[in-house]
Amino acid sequence: MNPKDQIKENLSIVDVVSTYVRLEKSGAQFRARCPFHNERTPSFYVSPDRKSYHCFGCQAHGDIFTFVEKIENIPFIDALKILADRAGVSLKDAKRNEAESRLVSLLKDTTLHFENNLKQSAEAKEYIFGRGLTDETIATFHVGYAKNEWRDLFVFLSSKGYSPEEMILAGVVIEAKDDTGKTKGFYDRFRGRVMFPIRNISGATVGYSGRILPSLATDSQGKYVNTPETPLYHKSKVLFGYDTGRKKMNETKEVVVVEGQMDLCMSYQAGVHNTVAVSGTAFTDEHIHMIKRFCDKVILSFDTDSAGQAALKKTGLLCILGGLDVYVVGDIGTKDPADLIKDDPALWVKALAKKKHVIEFLADTVLALPVDERTKGQKIVSEVLPFVRALTSPIDRAHFLRTLSEKTSISQDILTEELGRGILETSELSKEVEMPSVPPIERLSKELIAFAKLHKKEAHDEFISLSLDTEAFPDVIIEEEMFSLEKRVIGDKEAYFKDLMSTYKKEEHKAELVRLQKKLKEEGADIEAIMVQIYDHVKKRLN
Known about the structure:
The strands form four sheets. Strands 1-2-3-4-5 form a five-stranded antiparallel β-sheet. The chain has a five-stranded mixed β-sheet with strand order 13-12-14-15-16, sandwiched between helices. The chain starts with a helix and ends with a helix. The radius of gyration is 26 Å and the shape is globular. It is an alpha+beta fold and 543 residues long. The protein is built from 25 helices and 16 strands.
């Protein structure tokens, strides 16, 4: 059975659709108001027997894959990955599929164990309730407790039939070794901590963030401990609360980004369901991609200390480069969102309503500094103009140049002149943030491999010379790409194939230049030296 069929076998279409839409029983089927068009009377039907859906209003129809593609606004390959995660199916091979399915099951049992621990711990419950969480919120996010014991979880999981190797691979147990490297035993990674399960896009637990109880805190251990990188957990690809927030994100087209799990839980409790948390990791291109599936606007709420504000700037610039409209939550003083909401949830809602665009926020921050006007002007150029430069819309750039001119009394002409100077490209902030993009090489590779298989071009000399990794994509992905190519009307297939290969070479060449430039910069070469070596590289390629 191929992965696509296995996913269909493992997942009920009713379970998949009900993640996004409220279904009600109607005979042998289920019905709802269609999520793809506005309607008052339900005309959207889901059939468990046929494993399909159909809307009699807009004629939308299909299976679990087309449903997720359409509602998430993503291509088939991303829908396949989402559903594969949810079904516990690997897109690589059967052996890996079984191993990862075991890890998903292990973490599910671990979460239930932590939840049961919480019910039995008066101290952990006192702390959580003291922070303001309700029973309903605790249940929604499956908050639990890891006992302050060395082998509590290890013993429990062993009784469930999981091996120490599986527990280590899942990131919940650590192997202890003696001085010779011989295994002495195993112990729990999380001890004496309130546990927040981190779930992937489909709602399956892939990792944890554990907050030490205040009474157990010492200088030698961190306040938070997170799951390390595992086959299931990749911190650059996960946002805490994404699974609970995406429905509201899709409705409002905006997302609130906070720093911690407690901030997110309290924000959700206050009714702001379109909230996600970065959970102590840097914002990444993958996070931008996840947000852009539903939203075009981001509202940031980071700590007011220097580290928090530095993170806000980097995240804000990355979001702008990614094509998002970026705002900063209104003034909430020195409190974090969780404490503010505990005092009065309405204050949080009001602060969100008073959000400022990140460029205006940064400008106001500079202008409030106790320094002379000349220094303020210099800071506007070095700290604020990079954000204006990152805007993709000329209209937006003109608007914010005018706004900055009005706020600072610096003429628009001068700001425009500064905007075009090289100083912006060498600012420290700009150096640290790169434009997120989907690698065209990967996209072209997939299409080339599929086209070659479809039209028997695998033995073509030029195709062979590209040295493409034909095993880089699962068979199901290549089959879907072949199906897509078959549906397209391509007149001269030979010319199209040659154009594909030519485009691939150009993109590969561009990628090489980028890698070369990055390598030289890391080695400390100056700009002139970089350009000389790039010129030499191009000359060699042309000869």
